[in-house]
Amino acid sequence: MSIEDQTEERGDDRRGIQSIEVGGRLLKAAAAQGHPLPLKTLSQAAEMSAAKAHPYLVSFCKLGLMSQDPNTGYYGLGPLAMEMGLIGIQQVDPIRLASAMLEPLATALGHTVAIAVWGSHGATIVRTAASPAPIHVTMRHGTVVSLWNTASGPLFAAYRPAQEVKALWTDLQRLGDMDLARRPGSRAPEAPAPSWEEFAGLLDQVRTRAMHRSVNTIVEGVSALAVPVFDSDGEISLSLTSIGPSGAFDAAWDGSVATQLRHAAQALMRQIGGRPPV
Predict the structure, then answer these.
(1) How far is CA 263 from the centre of its chain?
(2) What whole-number distance in Å separates Cα of residue 220 and Cα of residue 214?
(3) How high is the mean pLDDT of the chain?
(4) What is the Cβ-side half-sphere exposure of residue 211, based on CA atoms within 13 angstroms?
């Protein structure tokens, strides 16, 4: 059969090689299972007969997309598939992908949503999408947030190296924990800076919940909730943070804001190949 005979016309006017797409089902099945499988099981997962699957597997093994264990005969992903996966991860830009989520997420939540990353002075806001609600809270790009009084600060601190976090905590104890998001006339009552033991205990709680919140801590009447997004090494890449008026903001750990932020973070991690830390 010629290549022309194996092509099919797409509704969007693209042409593809059908046999490659059929064989691709085996690669998808192998990736989904996550461990080597016998021919019969793998072919069933790809919804084809073993006789049909075998020639594809022979070719995939020659290319390095699949490999066969010489002792068990089981098939798993090969070295080329692994290499392609690693290259794909390196090409992914988490901030760009997360930015595409912000406007729909802000609309769904009814609150402002921001992306924060870890900078030399702590958690830093790099992207925002304002709430569509008439009354909402804004955040500025480039804002460095409090290490211990905000949602994003302790969230990052919980997943950064302890030595790095303690060094920053020590500097802020000496210089003062100035949160650049504070606005004159709207500050919440100043809370005493935590001891390192108190802060370390808070970080344990953050890791247990895999999220953090602030309620009326930096600005009176303002609440926020943040969830982490991890990369392929299980390290925190960025946070998704929602912020809004406390009276209208669901800050419950299992509330609507937390649930939707968590789902968005999980969807983003699927795109970048991320995973929670072990």
Answers:
(1) 9
(2) 11
(3) 85
(4) 23
Give the separation between CA 77 and CA 30, rounded to whole angstroms: 7
Q: Please state the length of the chain.
A: 278
156, 238 Cβ separation under 8 angstroms: no
Tokens of 181: 């998001």
CA 147 from centre of chain? 21
How many CB atoms within 10 Å of residue 25?
Answer: 16
pLDDT tens for each residue of 58-81: 999 999 999 999 999 999 989 998
Cite the DSSP H helix spans in 110-246. 152-159, 162-175, 196-209
E strand segments, the chain: 7-9, 15-17, 66-68, 75-77, 112-119, 122-129, 212-215, 222-230, 236-245
Beta strands at 66-68 and 75-77: parallel, antiparallel or unpaired: antiparallel
pTM score, two decimals? 0.66
Cβ atoms within 10 Å, residue 57? 22
Question: Which position has the token pair 């943040």?
Answer: 226
